[in-house]
Amino acid sequence: MAPLEPHWQQPSHPDIQEVINNEGDFASKSISRIAVAPFGVYADLAASQCTIEDRPTYATCQIGRNKHISLNSDLLYMNHSCEPSLRSQFFYPSTEWELAQPFDCSCGTPSCHDRIAGARDMTISQLEGYWLSGHIRELKKQQQEHAGKDATTTTTTSSSSSSSSDTFQADGETPPPPTTTPPAAEDLTVIRAHNSLDAKDPTVQALNDALDHAEKVVEAARTALVSYIDVSRSAAGRRIEEVKGERVKHRGTFGEAEGSSRRGGGGEGSG
Predict the structure, then answer these.
(1) pLDDT of residue 88
(2) Considering the chain, what percentage of its residues have pLDDT values greater than 90?
(3) Is 28:21 a contact under the CB 8 Å cutoff?
(4) Domain residue spans in the chain?
(5) CA–CA dist 13, 31 (Å, integer)
């Protein structure tokens, strides 16, 4: 696909963003000029020249179940990463259900998911720990519900066929009812979604809301901790290099002074 030719004034966000254009597919990148706290706002899209699009493209951003916008600004150059950072990256499946142009991720992070096609093709466990837009959570919940119904229908049909074809055992006794293996422990998000399907109990709703809030707090704390550790390590590394540099500089100065003294002494003695 041919690269999109910018039709907007560049740079569009010089105060917060630096765009570096390189040749090749997915080679351009965006560097943040500011630090943003976890769950903070990087750019207000309402203030940009966004336009609503009829269908998704590789250059659109999904903002609802069936709503997509073109950013029409340099924010387009924010690349994907499985571990978003201040390099102006974000996790595409957090907003995109199905990418119009899937790609092989090259972020190189430990948690890289390799092929990125949107949240639709990712499991609950793969999405765990990421911030997800409301429409992505709803679509994932709906997907899980449909998968659960299909599994239940298949199990019921299989059990009925088995019972009708073999009603009695060889000794004439009725066989015990078929047993099924209990499902594996599900992600908390799916459990909460299942509980809320038929539950109108205000207590259940209140506890679900509390769980929502708690998960956001935990994720914010985790992100803040990781960011703080990274910054601390970088600062400590720079300080160590500075100390090493000072030691080398002083050692060189002392060595020169000592050598000069010896040379001077030798000259006087020889004279």
Answers:
(1) 55
(2) 10
(3) yes
(4) 17-126
(5) 11
